[in-house]
Model the fold of this input.
Amino acid sequence: MPTSTTSDITVLGAGAIGAAVAWRCAQRGLTVTLVDPAPSRGAWNTAAGMLAPVTELHYTETPLLRLNLASLAQYPAFAAELADESGRPTGLTENGTLQVAWDGADFAALRELHEFGRTLGVATELLGEAELRALEPALAPGLPGGLLAAGDQSVDPRLLHAALVTACRRRGVRFVESSGTVLADEDRVRGVRVGGVEISSPVVVLAAGAWTGTIEGVPTSAAVPVRPVKGQTLRLRLDGPTRLNHVVRAAVRGSSVYVVPRADGQLVVGASTEEAGFDPRPRAGAVYELLRDAQTVLPELSEATWDEVSTSFRPGSPDNAPIVGPTRIPGLLAATGHYRNGILLTPITASGVADLVTTGTLPGVLAPFTPARFAEAT
Ligand code: GLY
Done:
């Protein structure tokens, strides 16, 4: 192996975001190197793949909602292009999300969410008890109502990631399965060192999700404030014809749960939210709570068989929003901190970073999310 090589852009992190950034940049004719010591550990491997900007809505996060909606709008074309280039499916399904109310107070909160969404032009439909059961007969009787976000979609993140990796390979992206150390001075990034090899690159992208803060060589002035937020998902399977028509979400006695159906009959139940550092061990209490709450809303789940419990780490940021754009070091970019929306925000992050690299301009919808907003804190 040579002791030095060059690449127009080196991306640190081969998860959904990093691989999508690499693919989009390679499409624009750039030479791209993708560096990751453990590509399968990414949050994509655990994520359920809900593309649900509306029901993940929090009242203080209007710019994030706009970004989420813009990325959701890009998904059908993104997935079609990716499937075309890779020859692989992504599992994109336009099934909508049903947010189920657990009690009257919960239903009142859904009414408020519905009204708030309307002020932003987001279409949702409030459903009473009978309408809810008619739409999703597997739901437990007695739930007071729900909110249908018919425009929500879901994708299978494992299929999506496999398609991205294939599309990258077909575009000539070079994969390096190793840790990379950023080579940078205060006035510019110079590249990445992998073992004894220097990859000389005028552009380096920090896209290692929850692990971004562990990348060596990043100058303190360009440090990106992400932390791991552990999430567990369960994969179950029901025999027979029972099939959910929608992604179902609920807050059972205040405890959030969602169930995402796959075309092959698998049901992904998620997700815990734990501040536990990088401890990857599944926690029994989290598994119990997810099963208890999911089964409360969908009683038939007691008949389901067990496929898997999966754990990974969301990249949490101080304001729960992504960190995308230039750091203080010229050429050193961030594409991380996507927290609960990494799969949803993959298309818009990838095209936004490719725009930034090739034109020098980040699209306006991403402008509120640059690392500069943490300038005082870092
Ligand atoms: N977006 C779902 C989750 O992070 O659990």
Notes: The CA atoms of residues 364 and 373 lie 15 Å apart. The chain has two domains: 4-45+159-225+318-377, 94-152+228-316. The two ends are 37 Å apart (CA to CA).
